[in-house]
Amino acid sequence: MSSSPSLLSRRRATPELELPVPPEFRCPISLDLMRDPVVGPTGITYDRAGIEAWLLAAARCPVTKGDLRADDLVPNHALRRVIQAWCVANRCRGVERIPTPRVPLTPAQAAEALAARRLQAVVIKEILASGAAIDVVTENLDAIIEVLVETIKDRISPQATKASLIAAYHLALAAADDHAAATRLAEAGIVAALVELLIDSGDRNTAEKALAALDATLVSDAGKARARADALAVPVLVKKMFRVSDTVTELVVSALHRICKKCGGDDEATAAARRSAVVDAVQVGAFQKLMMLLQVGCKEEATKEKATELLKLMIKYEAAGGGGCIDAMDFRGLKRL
Question: Whole-structure pTM over 0.70, yes or no?
Answer without folding.
Answer: no
